[in-house]
Amino acid sequence: MANFKVAVVAANGKAGSKIVEEAVGRGIDVTAMVRSKNKTAAQHAIVKDLFDLTTADLKGFDVVIDAFGTFKLEDLPEHMTSMKHLADALSGTNTRLLMVGGAGSLYTNPEHTQQLKDGADFPKEALPLSTMMGKTLEQLRLRDDVRWTYVSPAANFVADGPRTGHYLLRGEEYSTNDRGESTISYADYAIGLVDEAVSGNHIHQRISLIGA
């Protein structure tokens, strides 16, 4: 996989670092794109703010993985603006864009009129973030000029959970495993996301990953 080149944006973050670790472990050539010193296992690094990245910076990669995330209320719009910036930079190129998404926009009915975040028991403190990430997905769906894939995690996305080596690939609808659980560790999520990065099986689609 040494000739397969992946860039991970916001690689120093919790999700980004797990994705880098998984990809490097498979022998993939990984470049960390970070605002400050690279703290990951990536073989290369571009130290640059996300919003300063250019088409030239992203040239030559098979896949760019957007692992940007923020939980600060005042910064939530950056989920939208960062996606648009990367999509604009990749517009018309063969490089695929994979986005680390959210679970709140997963559908809870077959008609796809209700989302997980609409439920009465959805945590109120998570609603602003889920709403913004859902709007970002809506905008991404309009981008037929970019070869994108949006990857939602399970409802319970566990940063420090173990790497079991197993996950279930699902689609647009909220789902659970055989134990009725919707949970996945960052490490197992990284396995599924890197699998998608390598295969490219879901261009212009949203997929979801849950723990087996």
Question: In words, what does this structure look like?
Answer:
- With 212 residues, this protein is an alpha/beta fold.
- It has one domain (5-210): Rossmann fold.
- Helix content is 27%, strand content 21%.
- The chain has helices at 14-25, 55-58, 78-90, 127-140, 186-199, and strands at 5-9, 29-34, 44-47, 63-66, 96-100, 147-152, 156-158, 168-170, 183-185, 205-210.
- The strands form 2 sheets. An 8-stranded mixed beta sheet has the order 3-2-1-4-5-6-10-8, with helices on both faces. The protein has a two-stranded parallel ribbon with strand order 7-9.
- Helix 1 (14-25) packs across helix 5 (186-199) and helix 3 packs parallel to helix 4 (127-140).
- The model has no long low-confidence stretch (mean pLDDT 95).
- Residues 11-191 form the NAD(P)-binding domain.
- Pfam families: NAD_binding_10.
- This is Dihydrodipicolinate reductase.
- It comes from Bombiscardovia apis.
Features:
21% strand; eight-stranded mixed β-sheet; two-stranded parallel sheet; Rossmann fold; 10 strands; alpha/beta; 27% helix; 212 residues; globular
Shape: globular
Helix content: 25-40%
CATH architecture: 3-Layer(aba) Sandwich
Q: What is the CATH homologous superfamily assignment?
A: NAD(P)-binding Rossmann-like Domain
Fraction in beta strands: 15-25%
What is shown here, in short?
The chain has five helices and ten strands. By secondary structure, it is α/β, with parallel strands linked by helices.
Topology record:
Layout: E1 5-9, H1 14-25, E2 29-34, E3 44-47, H2 55-58, E4 63-66, H3 78-90, E5 96-100, H4 127-140, E6 147-152, E7 156-158, E8 168-170, E9 183-185, H5 186-199, E10 205-210
Parallel strand pairs: 1-2, 1-4, 2-3, 4-5, 5-6, 6-10, 7-9
Antiparallel strand pairs: 8-10
Helix pairs in contact: 1-5, 3-4
